[in-house]
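Entry: Dolichyl-diphosphooligosaccharide--protein glycosyltransferase subunit 1
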Amino acid sequence: MESFRFCFLMLTIAILASPALSDLVLSKVDRRIYLTSHIVRISSTMKVENAGSEKESKVLLAFPEQQAKNMAYLIATPHEGKGKGKNPVVALPVEAANPKDMPAALTLYSVSLPKGLAEGDSFTFDVLAVFTHALRPIPEQITQADIQLVLYQDSAHYLSPYAVKVQSLSVKLPDSRIESYTKLENTKIHGSEIKYGPYENIPSFSYSPIAVHFESNLPFAVAHELVREIEISHWGNVQVTEHYKLIHGGAQSKGEFSRLDFQARPNVRGASAFRYLVANLPPRAHSVYYRDEIGNISTSHLRGDSKKTELLIEPRYPMFGGWRTAFTIGYGLPLQDFLFESDGKRFLNITFSSPMVELVIDALIVKVVLPEGSSDISVAAPFPVEQWQETKISHLDIDGRPVVVLKKTNVVPEHNQFFQVYYHFSQLSMLREPLMLISGFFFFFVACIVYMHADISISKSSASYLAKQQWEEVQAVIQQVQNIISRCLTTHDNLEASLRDLSRTGNIQACKAARKAADGLLKELSKELKPLLTFLQSSPSAAQVEELVAKERELQEKVMVKHSTVVDGYEKKLGARDIENRVALQQQKLTALRQEVDDLLEFIDEI
């Protein structure tokens, strides 16, 4: 309240020194302030008269600077009397004005009249001003069980650069529960409506501050950002996808939240929260979905008729002050209801803003995705917007689809008007994607036919085939060498077994017979190895194979020496301990050589 009084004092000082701008007089002003939602709407009916001799064609509208910052929408229209038919009304041109000798604390707009007012002429028109974030929660923080109280501040006198002969003000509230309000002369209250006036002969720039502190538990739904993507498909559909980042813009919630209390008494233990939102979708909307980053949200209801489709969505949790949520809704629309042709060009005619009821949007981005091949693009919007173009790459696209991006801040339901996107598109471009699919399948099947009938085997006369065949022969020979070496090692094991039998039975003749058989077998295996080694001399594995054969021969010699030493010891009647001592060093060398041979065999096998 103190800041409000200070602003009022500064505004009063500024405007008292400002002279009247012209001889125009407002003979009657009826203002109606609607505080029935968190969006403040001020509707004014004004009758202006020219009391001077010069012709006047413009009327100035004045707003305090702080109020003008929150203004989202302003429109002036000729007044239609009661009982007259509702014909389409053409809005009067409104533009920002900056006349001389005006205080900086005021923001002025100029309304152009249909025709100039001569001396004594009058004209009646309506002005609608819509404001966002104009209701201040008092207190700013409440608990789950508290109701939400908000404060609204304005002037009982219409702030105007012109004198006002007769004026009145009506403030309409959500209900009759009012904490306090400013009481002035000629103030009356009727249920949920407060009336100020009538007041007569009010000078220009008159300002009489009022404040209304009242209960309002209506949804304070604010979208910090909304991205709408409208994708056109000439195959019969317009797909709309809307991404919301939502916050409850009312009094901040403090303390703990009890789901049990809320479920038991939602009107008492959650009066300030809102549980659902309503979206009025276009008629014949189909394929509607409602989801967030977790997945599909089933708490939604859809009903429709020939005039509209109503979607009631419920967030995953009740929305208290300061709480946030993010979700996406999407739906399809029949193409013939929104795409038309004019002067050889196609144009999309669709609403600009969100279909949500009473939603304030801090930043709205509308993306219109046109078919690939669209050109000569232009936009016609009923209000100023930022505009640029992007490119979107989708399935079966070559150059990408042109995207018209429109951005506007401080958006209210009054902005949900139709806008148009014009573009040129050739009928032949529609055949691009079907032809791509047909061509793709055609070439795929041709490739399959060629593959099935073509002989792609390697020629027997080619260098690669000969090299492969030679390598296979080398591998076969190496396998034979490995088998021969394995047989040699088996023969060595048999000699070792004969020595063990000798130590057990003492039969020297049987041991010598085993030695003789082993000698014959090893000679045969040596003969088999010679041609194989000759064949492998030019192969990359020749060095490893030759090393393997050399190690096996060295092992063979050591085995024979050990065998001869043991048999000689038994013939000389030496003791078992003496024989073991004589062959101990030989046995160590045998074990090491056998390990080397086994390692070489394993290495060659890996090759």
